[in-house]
Amino acid sequence: MAQLTRVSGSVGLITLQNPPVNALSAAVRQGIVDTVKKAVSDPLVKCVVICGQNGVFCGGADIREFGAPMTGPPLVPMIHAIEATNKPVVAAIEGAALGGGLELALGCHYRIIHSKARVGLPEVTLGLLPAAGGSQRLPRLIGVPAALELITTGRHVSAAEALKLGIVDQVTDDNTVDTTVKFALSVVGRSLESRRISTFPCPPVSDLDAVFDVAMQRVRQSARGAIAPVTCVQAVRAAATLPYTQGMKREQELMATLFTSGQARALQYCFFAQRAVSRWSMPSGARWDTSKPRPISKAAVIGLGTMGRGIAVALAQAGLSVVAVETQEKQLMDAKQAVSGMLERGAKRRGVAPALGLVSYSHNIQAVAEADLVIEAVFEDMDLKKKVFQQLSAVCKPGTLLCTNTSSLDVDHLASQTPSPELVVGMHFFAPAHVMKLLEVVYGPRSSPQAVATAMQLGKKMGKVSVAVGNCRGFVGNRMLKPYMEQAFFLLEEGATPELVDQALEEFGFAMGVFRMSDLSGLDVGWRVRKADGLVDPDATSGRSARIRQGRRYSPLGDLLCEQGRFGQKAGRGWYQYDKPGSRVAKPDPWLHNFLEQYRARHGLGVRHIDHQEVLERCLYALINEGFRILEDGIAAGPEDIDAIYVFGYGWPRYRGGPMFYAGMVGLANVLERLEHFHQVHPDVPYLQPCSLLRRLVASGSPPIQKWREVIRKVHSQL
Ligand SMILES: CCCCCCCC/C=C\C=C\CC(=O)SCCNC(=O)CCNC(=O)[C@H](O)C(C)(C)COP(=O)(O)OP(=O)(O)OC[C@H]1O[C@@H](n2cnc3c(N)ncnc32)[C@H](O)[C@@H]1OP(=O)(O)O
Question: Are 560 and 567 in contact (CB under 8 A)?
């Protein structure tokens, strides 16, 4: 809806009304068309101000409407009509003017913005381009290079920067609507000829081809397979090289290709998934809206290795006072320096003062006595963590929330070391903890809803995408990673190379293939876990039995590399070779290829041709299958939780929506059929056996992902 009122005698004030962000739904667009017409034809109205209700100008097109057939008046002619009026129209921007919201403002003759508001054309993050004239007007207003950067990144711009770039005409600290009303009155009678951006020529650029070549190269490199950034460059090129009308035609053509693309659907799904995970629920029925978090002002971190340092930084940057504890003096001194450095660099980037004073350091665990919440981040060893939890129980004040940053150990077992297991949750950060967006909040069977609510709220405060998950080996992310990596190892046994597997996964859109990733994180990490699980058997050297452990197919390849000291990047060799330890440039290693050949010969393994399709199906479908098991087990409440975890923590390409969304896109029946095939070929690989929830979903007609929860609920009610 949009409402027209007359204020200050002769100003037609149009207020967009569609909470929470005044998105341009069909009703709002209709409202704008009607009120503009009315204001223009009202002789008492001399000028028009457009604003949004509740302190937000407009969050853009209503993303919820994208999946459905278009109704209501289209945006492009609506904005043209505003630009063409003979009465000045001024946008009063509070909160945000994003996407179609900024395009609407660019159709106005002037723009006044509040100093705390921001503007931007983030369509590219939704797999789209600014197709209500944004790609044609913005370059005409601020020049091609600046517009290219804003449109291809989707970056939000502060009011101050918007003024500097020339996007807005004035910044105010006062009441934006009052200021804009006065401004509108002051420009009544002035010619509007020079205020219609569509009539501007694009400011000339000296070497246009070079500018676009560089931009295209940049987006191709950083977008890794995403089509919208490339299309955005093409649209801006149209602005720079074509008359406005033809540029608009091109904008629409390009938008049409994006609008129906799977990538746009995936990215829009991610937008809502990111927000849906904050509405968490537990199998007990506890929920986000009925569980009240505790206030946390003082936190503590135990253990200042890489993870502990990052967590301390994340907490301090969120404004909490932090006690950082490390028992070893030398490690404590190193950590102090490292944490201060990270805080200083972060503050410089964000243009704020570093929160150095918020962190205090101690080698004595007694220092955490007054903390409201403690995050244990010591070495991944159950006995050590148990000891820390026992100490914490003795030291902390009553009611302190005890959290563990374990990546796979049993949170409930740790909880049992304390007299208040309801106050224990997992807070699984991802390295580097002050940078990575994902936080898995792990609840055990005894964790209280209040403890979960507190950890989730703290995650939000730290700017994380926090996902509440149940307690099981590896939780959600690492549990799904296991079958994925296992398939990659098996593919090497069957004839693939690390390069082939990684190339297939990187072309799919992963930032790094499984072997490069494994070299980066260190092969010894998994080796230690496998040893603890009793899987590593140094005596089993040849024959089929050497590749069977605990009754199922097993590849000892990773163990054999570790026995050679090939721990990955830090050792200068792993699945690849590196110029020196710590170098990041992975090169194919003839030693490794020779080693694989000898290994296959020793075990009598035939080599066959493996193509990218098989790599993707084996690795990804095994991972997805485990995702369905996780849903079936109630470890994740819905597919959005799994997808958010993979997109924000595991480098899954956002434009593919996450593993569960991807399964829906390729077709659940297809995934099931391929898993059945692979399981038939490899009956000794339980991870390839299709999960019963997947069968159930296919049997119920492969409903859209939004309906999976209904099927899952039915499955759970029958258990
Ligand atoms: C056939 C081919 C031709 C087709 C031609 C079509 C022509 C189309 C022309 C123009 C197209 C324009 C494209 C766009 O405008 S796309 C939208 C661009 N806008 C955005 O990307 C902004 C998205 N929103 C945000 O960034 C934030 O929400 C923000 C506005 C900054 C507010 O942030 P915050 O205060 O943190 O609040 P939340 O993010 O939690 O959001 C609150 C709730 O509002 C919902 N929301 C937000 N934006 C939208 C939107 N644009 N549409 C619908 N809903 C939106 C959000 O989901 C939250 O809801 P909930 O609490 O239920 O999760």
Answer: no
